[in-house]
Design goal:
It contains two helices and five strands, in the order E-H-E-E-E-E-H. By secondary structure, the chain is α+β, with helices and mostly antiparallel strands. It starts with 9 loop residues before the first strand and ends in a 17-residue tail after the last helix.
Length: 116
Amino acid sequence: MLTISAAVRIYVATGATDLRRSIDGLAALVRERFDLDPLSGHLFLFRNRRGDRVKILAWDRAGFWVLYKRLERGIFTWPAVEDGVRVEMRSADLLLLLAGVGLTHTRHRRWYERVA
């Protein structure tokens, strides 16, 4: 299970990404697609075309981490938005996505949440 600080933002790359890319290739995509610094400490999610694999790129002040998950059956549900649009998700949503819960059929109840 992942524990993610509230200060860490999670960005999702819309569309498909060639997951054969290395850390440097994914960091270049962060600069191009998100117009963000990959050394920011935030998480960046990428999914392959079939939807059965996900890579997460993270920086922890000493180096990059790449977390990789491959499903044996099924696909990850991904936000259905135009390619090139910056999508941000909550840490709870990331945990649900990695657990196989379809985010399109769930909804958040209204409650107070401080936005920084």
